[in-house]
Amino acid sequence: MVTISIRGISADLGRRAVLTGLSATLRPGTLTGIIGPNGAGKSTLVRALLGLVPTLRGLIEIDGRDLKTLSQRDLARTIAYLPQGQTLHWPLSVERLVALGRLPHLGPMSRVSREDREAVLEAMARADVAHLASRIATELSGGERARVMLARALAVGAQGLVVDEPLASLDPGHQIDVMELLAREARSGALVVAVLHDLTMAARYCDRLLLIERGMLVAEGTPAQVLTAERLRTVYGVTGHIDIGGAAPVVVPTGRWREPQAEAE
């Protein structure tokens, strides 16, 4: 199983500081949600974990090994990544698209093996898209496409899975399908990290949350520890209805928070 240790990392995009002194540990068997307002640095953080954004300071370790010492091929076999806003341009069948997840295991001239084919079939079954195997991926609905892209990531056979905004543009039913899939992967022992905007989904399905504001980690812990009325006010600038103690946690923003006006004398 894979563990990611983040120790005091900082990163800039252009001349703007995006991450500042951020530290956390991401553990296997856990669905970790990364939350925060727009522009907080969430996507930059997950890209830094994969060596796609250079860090200026600090250290990222994958199972005790410095990220910078790992080849992209080794890293791709260890952590599967599904970026946000995936667009399909080529009319591939679902099965062929999912099979692209096996690329980190293939050499320049190697052929797809029996093991590769079995991994593809298993990934499609886990993502509940096996019945779509012969369909053309560009003709699928948004919810079907989201599960197919997750199947491609699962086909890697990696011990870690990082997904960036997997719920974007999905209706509530398909959002539930995706979150249940991610939760199942975590329960199977994988390390699963998801960038999320929907706080109710984060509260309901995540084991732990990292709350980021202006590139800094301002809270870490269980959803009940992180999602408080005070943090909704100070980080998101909203008031909200929070009920995390029940079987179906709910976090619903109800309005913009306004500083109370002092009473006139």
From TrEMBL:
SUPFAM superfamilies named in the record: P-loop containing nucleoside triphosphate hydrolases
InterPro entries, per the entry: AAA+_ATPase, ABC_transporter-like_ATP-bd, ABC_transporter-like_CS, P-loop_NTPase
GO molecular function: ATP binding; ATP hydrolysis activity
Record has Isomerase as a keyword: no
UniProt keyword list: ATP-binding, Nucleotide-binding, Translocase, Transport
PROSITE patterns: ABC_TRANSPORTER_1 (PS00211), ABC_TRANSPORTER_2 (PS50893)
Chain ranges of the ABC transporter domain: 4-239
Record's function text: Part of the ABC transporter complex HmuTUV involved in hemin import. Responsible for energy coupling to the transport system.
Family the UniProt entry places it in: Belongs to the ABC transporter superfamily.
Name of this chain's protein: ABC transporter
